[in-house]
Write a structure and sequence with these properties.
The chain has helices at 42-49, 73-77, 95-100, 109-114, 119-131, 147-160, 177-194, 205-211, 234-241, 246-254, and strands at residues 3-11, 17-26, 31-35, 57-62, 65-66, 80-84, 165-169, 197-201, 214-219, 222-228. The chain is α/β, with parallel strands linked by helices. The protein has 2 domains: 28-46 and 72-79 and 163-276, 3-Layer(aba) Sandwich (Rossmann fold), CATH 3.40.50.300; 87-162, no CATH class. The protein has a 6-stranded mixed beta sheet, with helices on both faces. A hairpin with a 2-residue loop joins strand 4 and strand 5. The longest helix has 18 residues, at 177-194. Bound molecules: adenosine-5'-triphosphate and magnesium ion (MG). Residues 42-43 line the site of magnesium ion (MG). The site of adenosine-5'-triphosphate has 11 residues, from helix 1.
Length: 276
């Protein structure tokens, strides 16, 4: 197994368990979608894997090496590439500089201060920017890019780490539907090309089903579904998201305006009777 999670539990200072004994195993090269209602613990799970958030209990192993309880985090973290919803780019730096920062786990500290990277890293950055379709934008500042382009920078930066796994937190949440599909396709393609595993936390069930074959459903900090994406029946979705009239949702999608039918966003939706 590439990633093994055993009994992972996280209690924030405020009390309730955000994660409650999560077990998960992901083989090399598998891309898994993580779904669940707001507050289910998706971001917490992704962040506990690389210990951006310190778990309260439980263990995480990457290719047999324990991640939890060890001190040399730099070495473990560079094997896990993070991609964020909000892109987390340095706005005033160029695309190239942002992507090269993916090498920070490798270059000596003094070099990173001067932002002097080995020629091989620069070569690799060019090749990666070419792969994600940004070769024409290497010298642009990050704040001059569109949302989709910014997420491509985020993907390139994570890839430059040469990780074993990508941890992806809502990569398409601030993108339009078409760009969302392009970004999901890119993530899946680069994972396949490089035999990278990934955990992709998503709100859009339809988008997750379109691209991913295995889905993990989280509810109140527990795994309540782990199986094929075509097994997400209305009954299973009710277990994950709670009560919702899924059949009526589908009907309604036929005769409402476009902006309401973007994927399935079950949580936070108004009861149907209250609409219109
Ligand atoms: N830094 C924090 N301090 C205290 N509680 C937190 C913190 N971060 C998250 N929580 C709580 O932990 C629970 C899980 O939050 P988390 O952000 O992991 O959920 P999520 O599934 O990612 O939700 P969303 O879909 O809204 O992003 C929630 O109850 C949340 O309020
Ligand atoms: Mg979240």
């Amino acid at each position: 197994m590439l990633l093994t999670i055993e009994g992972l539990t996280k209690r924030y200072g405020t009390g309730d368990a955000a994660l409650n004994g999560v077990d998960l195993a992901i083989p090399a090269g598998e891309v898994v979608g993580l779904i669940g209602p707001s507050g289910a613990g998706k971001s917490t799970l992704i962040r506990c894997i690389n210990r951006l958030v310190e778990p309260t209990a439980g263990r995480v192993f990457l290719a047999g090496d324990e991640v939890t309880g060890r001190r040399d985090l730099r070495f473990m973290r560079r094997r896990m590439g993070m991609i964020f919803q909000e892109f987390a780019l340095v706005e005033r730096l160029t695309v190239m500089e942002n992507v090269l920062s993916g090498r920070l786990g490798y270059v000596p500290y003094w070099r990173s201060l001067l932002r002097r990277y080995p020629a091989a890293d620069v070569q690799r950055a060019f090749a990666t920017l070419d792969r994600v379709g940004l070769l024409d934008h290497v010298d642009k500042r990050a704040d001059a890019l569109s949302g989709g382009q910014r997420q491509r920078v985020g993907i390139a930066r994570a890839l430059l780490q040469q990780p074993d796994i990508l941890l992806v937190d809502e990569p398409t949440a601030s993108l339009d539907p078409k760009t969302s599909r392009q970004i999901m396709r890119l993530i899946c393609e680069v994972c396949a090309e490089r035999s990278l595993a990934a955990v992709v936390n998503m709100h859009d069930v339809a988008l997750a089903q379109m691209f991913l074959s295995r889905i993990v459903g989280l509810r109140q900090g527990r795994v309540v579904y782990d199986g094929p994406s075509n097994g997400l029946t209305p009954e299973v979705l009710t277990v994950i998201y709670g009560e919702e009239d899924w059949t009526r949702s589908a009907q309604r999608d036929d005769d409402v305006a476009d902006e309401d039918v973007h994927g399935a966003r079950p949580h936070g939706r108004e009861p149907l009777a209250a609409v219109g």
